[in-house]
Amino acid sequence: MIERARQALLGAACLLFTVCLLWAVRHLVALPAEQQALSVLLSRWLPDSGVSHPVTAVLLNFRSYDTLLEIGVLVIAGMVGISLARTSALEDPAMRSADPLLHALLRLFLPLLVLLAGWLLWAGSSRPGGAFQAGALLAAAGVLGRLAGLPMAFLRPGTLLRAGLVLGFSVFLLIALLGALDGRAFLAYPPGLAGALILVIEAGLSLSIGMILLALFVSAPVAPEEDADGGPPA
Amino acid sequence: MTELWLDGLLVCALLATAAGALLSRDLFRAVVMFIAFGLLMSLAWVRLRAPDIALAEAIIGAGLSGVLFLDAVSHLRRRPAGGAAEDD
User: Fold this and answer.
1) Cβ B71–A220 below 8 Å, yes or no?
2) Which of A47, A172, A205, B21 is least surrounded, with the fewest CB atoms within 10 Å of its CB?
């Protein structure tokens, strides 16, 4: 009885929320374009941002502080995920698939995925794409490789993993601090260099994001009985 | 008119896959429904003219989290629900 009442209450709340959302969307759409102050501001300052795609301009120039904090959160999440890992063998023989189709597909897909990630990164300055999508695609390529049993030795906790995890964040922070030390505001790019610096930051970000997401997948806790006994060092 | 019909169909498919993911008793079926939902959702983002979000949804929502969920389901299956004594 109480369960039924709870469900009805939840359903009513969801319905109310949906109606409110619909009302808000209608209200937004009804506004004339001149009154949508944000888009006007954005299109006025877009030429100064160094990129021609408004989403990238907001993410990496106008509101780059948010993106900096976001990658910080991701780095912390990656560290926590790795420290929760209970398996010491990254090359788990039980996970190695003997499926010949998967191996053949992998040979075809891996270069294609890496190429696509690079293109997404490059395209981010002028059309939909960008660091996050490119990084996630890199991670997807890594997950495919992991499922096919490719050795993931570079994800062994060590210098390479640590450097890869913090690469994006530190490049971003360095450029932000250089702006502040040079007399401009924190996170302000030098005039004329914004486009190039954004691309550098995005390249670092996508490598780091790819590595963090992949590390989260690879270091997912394994059930105790299937935990490998350390394994010989690679 | 055709666009309206297609959008309506998309909304119906979204609701159906969402309900399938939420209400399914079989975890594997729920995960597959969730992946289908993510792919349809990225189509919906394209229709809303937000291609950036559509890309992120397709890669992360449908791809990476789907793989993570499938992984979790296979781990849950390998360990029966009763034998939790060895869990430390």
Assistant:
1) yes
2) A47
The answer to the question of residue A131 being in a domain is: yes
Nearest to A165 by CA among A200, A219, A212, A213: A212
Q: Looking at the 3D structure of chain A, how many domains does it have?
A: 1
Phi, psi of A63 (to 5 degrees): -120, 45
Q: Which residues of B touch A147 (CB under 8 A)?
A: 67
pLDDT of residue B70: 86
* Residue A85, pLDDT above cutoff 80: no
Band of residue B83 on the pLDDT scale cut at 50, 70, 90: very low
pLDDT at A227: 44
Backbone angles phi, psi at B87, to 5 degrees: -75, 120
A205 in a structural domain: yes
* Interchain pair A133, B59: CB under 8 A: yes
Let me know: does A145 contact A152? Beta carbons within 8 Å: yes
Confidence check on the interface: ipTM exceeds 0.90, yes or no: no
